[in-house]
# Entry
Amino acid sequence: MPQDVLLGKSLPELTDWIETTGQPAYRGKQLYNWLYQKGIHDLSEITVFPKAWREQMGTYPVGRSQIHHQRTAPDGTRKYLLQLHDGLIIETVGIPTEKRLTVCVSSQVGCAMACDFCATGKSGFTRHLQAHEIVDQVLTVQEDFQQRVSHVVFMGMGEPLANLEQVLKSIQSLNQDIGIGQRSLTVSTVGVPDQIRTLAQQNLQITLAVSLHAPNQVLRESIIPTAVHYPIEDLLDECREYVAITRRRLSFEYILLAGVNDLPDHAAELAKKLKGFQSHVNLIPYNPITEVPFQRPGKKRINVFKQILQDHKIAVSVRYSKGLEADAACGQLRSNLRRSAPATVK
Ligand code: SAH
# Structure
């Protein structure tokens, strides 16, 4: 059952709600600030409100999760397992880099896409997250680091475009209520038919990242089971439409799996496919997960792949994952905990 909570509501909605509790409308703005700026977990914390009201409303659900587990990697990346109101667990990662604090948020509990190389995909799909459960992840990291979050990437558990309505609501709230610029928000998708087009029509300035991972349909299908229903040419056509409608360049993510999709021929084929596309390719060396036999290619091989793309005038960079020591790769902390302490992780 979706939970009706305060987090995720806009200022007018909070103002309407506060009036139903017998308070004057101006307290809506106060509630809004305490919710999104001070990050309260509980209404009794709002010291500017009358004591009787706080006592009466103290248990009303605000919509904040609890930190179930937390781990910090030597590079400063912090990985969290957050417990939701129904006891389910999601992952969130806080990544501090010079001047930035990026949060990697989950959009679903589990994921139905079942990509072969992804730990989350191995655990199956449980449910969609509500918008406030996405906003909560950002507030939690902000509070823990005592630093404003500057960037959010939808690269945690789940497929954001399979939960587009709630993801869009969360983007609106992150932008308007928390004040994160749209250009600092990135949605990553493996592709869900027609949803990239729908996203393009929202008139947003966000960045879209598409997990391509292969230069042709046969290879793509062999590592991404859902690609069977979505031919690579259709996906790329929708991406072209996205660029035409939004006039924004998009990124393609390409995980490098040794001997599977990292050969020079694959690079040349990819370059041909993306010729003339307003895009940027992010090569992501595979983060080993225990469930599958894939391997990460060596540096030399990664550089050869990159050089071939560059020789074809394709903008490319290599993205090494942060916080590997904290199992920060997609779904890893949750699945590793599940193995070592099954009772604590649903
Ligand atoms: N479902 C979305 C977003 C979540 S995954 C998507 O597929 O884009 C975010 C990125 O991490 C994706 O590019 C995904 O392919 C990549 N990823 C998943 N498992 C990985 C692993 N073991 N090593 C490296 N990258 C991985």
